[in-house]
Amino acid sequence: MMGMLRSLGIEKGKPFQPDARMKTLLTEATLVGEAMAKVNDYDKRDMPLAHYADGSQWEFALCLDPSQETANYTQLDERAAWFYEATATSKGMVTKTPGVGSIYLGTYKDKDGNWLDGAHTYRLHVLPHPPVTQFWSITLYDVSTRTLIENNTDITDRSSRQDLTKNADGSVDLYFGPQAPQGFDKNWVPTVAGKAWFPYFRLYGPTEAHFDGKWVLPDIEKVP
What we know:
This protein is an alpha+beta fold. The protein has one domain: Jelly Rolls (Sandwich). It is 19% helix and 21% strand.
């Protein structure tokens, strides 16, 4: 890495004095690099460990080994995708043992394959009997900053630990949009027009029903 920086004029013990040409190149590289990072993260390709379920828009947000290595190569794309929007990893976040650790699911598109838009209202139908020994939660993040969504409220997540409005069969309908649908304030996370967002759906203490695919989280649907 230091060798690559040296070719740009960045070297230990020497002042960095880029000329006009280098400033232009670095500015353009910043814009292109950001675009590359977004595509690599939000529209993952050739990352088998990201696959959650056939036909699903949900992916495993953490699609790399915590070591970031395989037998034959370093997981460069997978590493770049994860650390563009997150800061740490551990074996517990990619657990394969029922009842232990956590699972992170992420998505950037609705059921129809369209990017999630803060100006629209969406529904997520959490099926009954979610596969957790502890709890599940969903948290919304801003696409541009990858930090908690800023919506002028303290509401950025919903969780099974909260007093949510439930359906007769025990399922839960969650809503994301500028305004809460009538009667669903407890199940709503506000979004902001002009701001793209993405969620993490976390399973804490995932059970066998998750690992064998008997319980699959439905896609987020746009409300007409």
